[in-house]
Amino acid sequence: MDRELIDGLRQDNINAFNDAVRKYKNLVESLAAELLDNVTDREEVVNDTFFKLWRCRYQLDPERGSLQNFVCTLARSCIFDRLRYNNRIKRREVISREENDIGLDVDYENAAARELNHKVIIECISTMPSPNKEVFIDRYYFNMPIKDISEREGLKIKKVENILYRGKKRLKKALIKGGVML
Question: 97-178 domain in CATH 3.10.580.10?
Answer without folding.
Answer: no
